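Input.
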Amino acid sequence: MATPTFTPIDTSVTWGRLPADIRREIDVFETELRRVQAGLVDDKVFTEFRLRHGVYGQRQDRVQMQRIKIPMGMVSADQLIALAAIAEEYAVGVLHVTTRQDFQCHYVDIGDAPNMMRRLAAAGITTKEACGNVVRNVTACPRSGVCSDETFDVTPYAQAMAYFLLRHPDAQNFGRKFKISYSGCEQHACGLGRMHDIGAIAQIRNGVKGFKVLVGGGLGSLPHQAKPYSEFLPADEMLPLAQAVSRVFAKLGEKKNRAKARMKFLIAKLGLDEFKRLVEEERGKLPADPRWELELVEAMAGLSDEPLKGPSELALPANASEAMRRWLNANVRPQKQKGYSTAAVLLPLGDITSEQTRRLAELSRRFIKDTIRTTVDQNFVLRWVSNADLPALYEELHEIGLGEAGAGRLKDIVACPGTDSCKLGITSSRGLAAHLHNRFSNGLSEIAGRADLSIKISGCFNSCGQHHIADIGFFGSVQRKQNHTAPVFQVTVGGSMQNNAESYGLAVGKIPSQNVEKAIVKLAEFYSREKQGNETLSQVVQRLGKARLRQELAELMLLPALEEAPEFYKDTRQPWQYQRSIGVGECAGKVVDQAEFMLEDADRIHFEATIDLDEGRFAEAAGKAFQANKKAADALLFTKGLWLSDKYDTVAEFKKFFYESDAFYRPFAENFFRAAVEGATDNPEKARLRVEEATLFIEAAQGVYSQATNF
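Output.
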């Protein structure tokens, strides 16, 4: 194929045509940046300011990550070319697709950020409010408008919401971030509405378009399922509702304790009925805003989702390769419009180079008409591909390294940045995902194409990799053996993306990172062997119990000593030892041994609590979750010279030694203290929360223990 030529965007002309307030906004950012560099602005103040422009600190010094907002994941060929250019000129020549349909560029010098923003703005792209305590990117099903199962196309409604709340004064005073999604149907993953602050699911009642509205969902360290606010809300009420919700959240949401500042905690505190009353009261006070109607009118008028070519039938060439057939089977879906299909472009790790991005833009101009969308699975979807063009499209994608089959299959792993660039990363989630992808392409190819299992990986408990909603989820942790620490992953099962993220998984045990591959094979074999009919893995585990699953994984949970297997003390794709050996005092041998034993007891008791929770024994689950916390606290107190036989007050002593000294993550400690005051409960929701909180408390205890140097 001849090397394609590209028509660059004339940014000098386009920039001048931009509204003055957009140009001013970026000028202000540059001014503030220069002032902070001159020491004239408090760095704490500037941090939130730059976050609201999408500039996010990395683990590495003196470089930033630039997040780029792409509402509904809709991106044009011209915009792809602009993105390719800025990634090449200001970053490392790689664009990363996120789980919110955004783009990210890593290793950016913050001094280049203003010019990046100007280049992007000239192409109709903003970074405004891509990070920070504001409304983040509004997401929507990437097949909205072409999916045969959808109720109606939610694209214009999502777009109206995105631009209505962007820079809206009522959405600037939140204690934490706020996320919104739109789904075209109830039954599929679509927009994953149940894990959002506002999830809107398309409905039609008596010929009127509207939405089932869910509120208060979220993953993070303590996941909450969204609660039903309304079974049906007319579409023209969505924007005023979101404004009213924003005002209530801004007024009453937590501001000091960031760990409790998401809207899910406000709803849990107030109760859904009181929250609804406050929102409806606020809605009644709102003065009429012409933008409620205007934003939707403009979104409808500007929607240009149409084919470049006429409909046609697929005719496989006589020499069609097996690779092409696999790609057609896995990556291509028929649209509801006869003669057209969508084609998914699988991006391992969500990454695409600048050169690939340019070539993809050229292909989109040849085969489709600016109908490209990113996905929450960190891929692209090309829409309105005339069926006869599918073989040629595959060949072109294959030539530029984007023709891999397996989108939506087991090998299509979602992972957060982890220790590659995130300051909060505990383990190398991307390193593990890359290793698994390589193995799925080689030694594990027999299970790579499974469509009934998904894998999502987070580098810590915060669930940026969405491990809670995967069939098989992993989140990074650490485990100590004698005086050495090793990278491990908590395994979560029981999650499901179906029905807009209908269930969240719970941790069943820790697997050394070196054993994760074997654990996946074990779980896949277990699922194949035990499933009945169309059962999901979550349903199989629910039927057989987590104890049975733990038996399957028990051997893989063992962490050998450093002397026996030094490779277990290295993170994936990292040749150095994960963490230095900790210095010890004279009596540390016995102390360490006892503390390790007690932490193991805490893990065991916590696991028993998860089984009780699964089997409906809510009082027992809550009680054991508290016992597990207490055991972990006692383990740390033992390192301070307190013995169980001393019959001390665990809560009081833990406060003195670890909470008041800020040696322990305070929000997790406060969960423990609250449970001690509240006592026993048989409430299902509270019991589940106690179990989730225990997971985090024990993980934090392990972290404190692994970092200690004065035993």
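The CA atoms of residues 203 and 424 lie 39 Å apart.
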